[in-house]
Amino acid sequence: MDRKNIFSINILAALLVILMSIGTICAVCLLRAREKDHGVAFDPSNKAEEEVVNVKPDAVYIIREHMGELCVFDQGGNMLERLDVPLIALPAADRQKLTDGITVNGDDELARIKEDFTG
Known about the structure:
Elements: H1 3-38, E1 60-66, E2 69-74, E3 79-83, H2 92-100, E4 102-105, H3 106-118
Antiparallel strand pairs: 1-2, 1-4, 2-3
């Protein structure tokens, strides 16, 4: 290889490193903005896990949308469970109810409503 080819390869490698650095900086900025908007810190070792509290019998639950997911909360706002439900597939009226939160009384009603959403 002559010097001109080696120089061209070095320039291309340097540009690639610069572009990758810019991409990394943009990703970090987006994650920081998400953290500010949602109050959730990004932890790559723990995918958006919040403390999960055990379900209590005859309690009052709230089923609502949280960060694009369908979740069950207790009255104190502690997340109890995430449900694997694609919210986009739900009718608009159901999505609106979930934005406001659906109040559920007791474990039996919670199980019935979860079955309605999960099938």
